[in-house]
Give the backbone structure.
Amino acid sequence: MVASDPRAKVIPLHSNSGRAGQRRAAQRAAGARRHPSMQSPSAVEAPDGIGAVIREFESPHGPSGPSAPAEQTPNELARRIGALAEFVRKRMVGDYAVDEFGFDPHLNNAVFLPLLRGLFNSWFRVEVSGIENLPDTGAALVVANHAGVLPFDGLMASVAVHDQHPLHRDLRLLAADLVFDLPVVGPAARKAGHTMACTDDAHRLLAAGELTAVFPEGYKGLGKRFKDRYKLQRFGRGGFVSAALRSKAPIVPCSIVGSEEIYPMVADVRLLARLLGLPYFPITPLFPAAGPLGLVPLPSKWYIEFGEPIPTTDYDESAADDPMITFELTDQVRETIQQTLYQLLTRRRNTFFG
């Protein structure tokens, strides 16, 4: 080709470079838009929900931020181990108190009451009513019927008051002398807050503002035969009324249904009872024929009802020594408990299922 040829065309070296560069830049931008690393998190769809997990970790708070679930509380086993360790520590350093009667609330709450709750909740399935009739503060004398060969009724009443009273008050039982003569049972009863059923101890407990329980039937109630169940025995000389009058404490009748059936007593071997120094020697359908198995109480359904308190503040100081007044109040309390027992029995459809 000759330079002077008018048909010759000159190819410019730089005139179209701008358009080519623009095309290349546009191609690079399009490629960038298609690349996941250049896209926003909402535009990326990770398979199988992985994207949601990635976004949670990339969020400003992260998995441990304010929206994270609170730390799990310790499980039941860890809680019990911790409570046991704390109990042992307090016992070792002496960080607990015992009153003049030997009552050890720390030991009672940690050992005795938990053991009794198994019988209360699962074995006897006790239903409690009238707990509001017990005062929140100050003294009161709880008077209850007594039955069942062994005094489980008093123990169940103490669990009922402690667990269902709004202030979890302790019920101090007045028990027979025989209880405190036994090698292991006696000291345990003292530490659980109970004391002998004598006038002096009753006065001291009530004067200290304690909830005190008495069972006026005594051995006559515990050792009566099954055919006489729920028939109250004589209430003695009314010593509990005298104690309430002196301390101006209200008397709260308490009716317990269910205790009569735990050891159905069909006979009493009195000769053997005298030889062993016992008030009675019971013969039940399972004892002594079934051996140690006969000592297991039958799982009867229980009801405990606390009646309306009988006030004593209107009586003068001489009323405690007046036999007519003490007899009238004793008879009133006994009749109230007896009538309430009949009412509870009419509502109970079955001895073991309630």
Q: What stands out?
A: Residues 265 and 284 are 5 Å apart (CA to CA). Confidence is low (pLDDT under 50) at residues 1-6, 8-17, 34-51, 56-71. The longest strand covers residues 251-257.
